Amino acid sequence: MDGFAMGGYGAYVWSCVALTLVIVVFSEWRSRLRHKRVYRDIEVRLKALEDRE
Amino acid sequence: MWKWFHQLASPPHFYRLSAILSPWLAIPGLILIVYGAWQGLFVVPMDYQQGDAFRIIYVHVPAAYLSLMAYMIMAGAGAIGLIWRIKLAHAVAAAAAPLGAAFTFLALATGSIWGRPMWGTWWEWGDPRMMSELILLFLYFGYMALRSAIDDTAKADKASAVLALVGIVNVVVVHFSVEWWSSLHQGQTVFKKGTMDADMKAALLVMLLGFTLLFGSMLLRRIRTEVLHRERRTRWVREMILSPEGGA
Description:
The complex is a heterodimer of chains A (53) and B (248). Chain A is mostly helical and 53 residues long. Chain A has helices at residues 2-5, 10-52. Helices cover 89% and strands 0% of the residues of chain A. Chain A starts with a helix and ends with a helix. Chain A binds chain B through residues 3, 6-10, 12-13, 15-17, 19-20, 23-24, 27-28, 30-32, 34-35, 38-39, 41-43, 45-46, 50, and chain B through 37, 41-42, 46, 51-53, 55-56, 59-60, 63, 98-99, 102-103, 105-106, 109-110, 113-114, 116-117, 214, 218, 221-222, 224-225, 228-229, 232, 237-238, 241-242, 247-248.
């Protein structure tokens, strides 16, 4: 447990680690979400075009 | 070489290549980050002045370094797009901006959290390093706002590339601020001899390399999306999406 207490600085150190994790994961999740959305939008538009033809 | 460069700049080629490359950067990057974090947080000795609070360096320095690197990529790609009119370069610049903003915010936040126990304050308005890093965040916001305010992609590319190039001055200021002015922020440590214990530095270098690889992977993914969006009316996108295998 001492390792996690960080000599009384645990709250500062672990909040920085947690924040890094949150920002990296959130950024990657947003990126994947946008890719899926862009891909789906193109797919829907192309399928509609194909049906019309 | 020139032929290879041209082939790389071709959107369909880049789209396929980036899908292959991205995991090859992410996996070693994550392994290095886990190893570096383990070393930095639990194995290396604590600092004789800052105690264990110094371990924040293992997330703060990579974030600060990536905040500057992302800007250099954004401005460099913008310049390439302006000079050689390579479409892919503008996609790279547009994709680098949100990542750069995220890492700049992270550098500011972790720096602020580190400052509280060490300097007795969350924020110091007169500190040149903090203020220039904050200006960097505003430059990223300005860049993204400018892009989204202009509907014409070609015009948005040009205007935002000019803004990114002007903002390079601030990157130089961020880097040298601790040498040019008296600052609460400590001076250069990573590449200066005798400023850091060898084990501490080794763990930090592992983290820097790990974060760089992860950043590369994240950037490639974002460029892919940007390319797909920009090329949505082209034949290769149509063929890829309507093919039985799809293209994701």
